[in-house]
Specification:
Elements: H1 2-10, H2 12-29, H3 35-89, H4 94-107, E1 108-111, H5 114-125, E2 129-133, H6 138-155, E3 159-166, H7 171-184, H8 195-215, E4 219-226, E5 232-237, E6 240-245, E7 252-256, H9 260-274, E8 277-279, H10 295-304, H11 315-326
Parallel strand pairs: 2-3, 3-4
Antiparallel strand pairs: 1-7, 2-5, 4-8, 5-6, 6-7
Helix pairs in contact: 2-3, 5-6, 6-8, 7-8, 8-11
């Protein structure tokens, strides 16, 4: 009932015209009124209908005018928004910068605990090259180089190995590195980090590189010595780069080759090597190393490489370097 009443109110003129026409028609059929009255009533009904048509046209024109005004106002507002939208969606816009920030976060995977060892093992399994930059290269000579060589041998493939470690002949950088390692865990069990140990570890890595080079026709080695120490270790394979620190409890970072920063770190390591001192390992080819190199062989090797051992090193110290190089153990096992 309420809906009917609302309809009547909204269409009152048409309803009155309809009611008037029905009433006059009934009166005319029953001859209750004269023909002149009927004719006058017809004119009245037509007038009501004309008024209704005019009202609808007026409403429609008003509505169209309002729509045009809304569209004009919308166009003006959009025109004002175009520069602001460009700032948001353009090549240098906020939206693109936000997308790049999100992408850069997804480029890097954080590794914890055993994930670090698993990622390094996976990288060693399928690579044909390895670039290392770090401290003395203890883990590299104990695990990375032997395992990469073994996998290359199984695939009958070549392996290029690049190593950058601290210079054992630079007492200053050896002292800084030893102090840094002691500060990580001063009460750690085992051998204490000193200048002497740091030197021996670096010498051992150079010796291990030459020793493996003489025993594998699949291997090429580049050894560089730096007078600057780094608190990070970079291991870059053909599939990813893994960044770790000396403390094995610290989370590591992994960046796959498909990501932008893989190439950035590759360039970083290349430029770092170019600024370091190159060890001419090819010059050591005439110095044959036994399966267990002798003290004399090791002394002659380092003299040929331009890395003479300290004068204070007797046979026992040289034998210690040989043991660290050939019988190296995983320091994190």
């Amino acid at each position: 009932m309420a809906r009917l009443f609302t309809w009547v109110v909204n269409n009152l003129d048409a309803f009155i015209g309809l009611l008037l026409a029905v009433t006059v028609a009934v009166l005319g059929l029953t001859n209750t009124v004269s023909q002149d009255v009927v004719n006058s009533a017809i004119l009245l009904v037509l007038a009501v209908l004309a008024q209704a048509v005019l009202r609808d046209r007026l409403r429609r024109e008003t509505a169209q005018q309002q729509v045009r005004e809304v569209m004009r106002d919308t166009r003006d507002r959009l025109t004002e928004l175009v520069p602001q939208m460009h700032e948001i969606t353009g090549p240098e816009g906020a939206l693109n910068r936000a997308r790049e920030a999100i992408d850069s976060v997804s480029m890097v995977r954080v590794l914890h605990g055993s994930e670090v060892g698993q990622a390094l093992a996976e990288a060693r399994r399928h690579t044909d090259r390895w670039n290392f930059k770090g401290g003395t290269g203890t883990f590299t000579r104990a695990v990375t180089l032997p395992e990469c060589l073994e996998h290359a041998r199984r695939r009958n493939a070549t392996l290029h190995f690049a190593i950058e470690i601290i210079d054992p002949t630079d007492e200053g950088v050896c002292e800084r590195y030893a102090r840094f390692r002691r500060s990580l865990d001063p009460d750690a069990p085992g051998e204490r980090w000193t200048v002497d140990r740091t030197r021996k570890e670096s010498y051992a890595t150079v010796l291990a590189a030459c020793w493996h080079l003489q025993r594998s026709g699949l291997l090429t080695v580049e050894v560089r010595l730096s007078s600057q120490m780094t608190t990070f270790r970079y291991d870059l394979s053909s599939t990813c780069v893994i960044i770790t620190q000396e403390n094995p409890q610290t989370p590591a970072l992994r960046i796959d080759r498909k990501e932008l920063y893989y190439n950035r770190f590759n360039i970083e390591l290349q430029y770092s090597r170019e600024q370091s001192r190159r060890v001419p390992v090819e010059a050591a080819a005439p110095v044959k190393l036994d399966d267990e190199p002798s003290v004399e062989q090791v002394r002659r090797l380092f003299t040929t490489l331009g890395l003479p051992l300290p004068r204070s090193y007797g046979d026992r110290e040289v034998a210690d370097i040989v043991s660290r190089a050939i019988q190296a153990r995983n320091p994190y096992a």
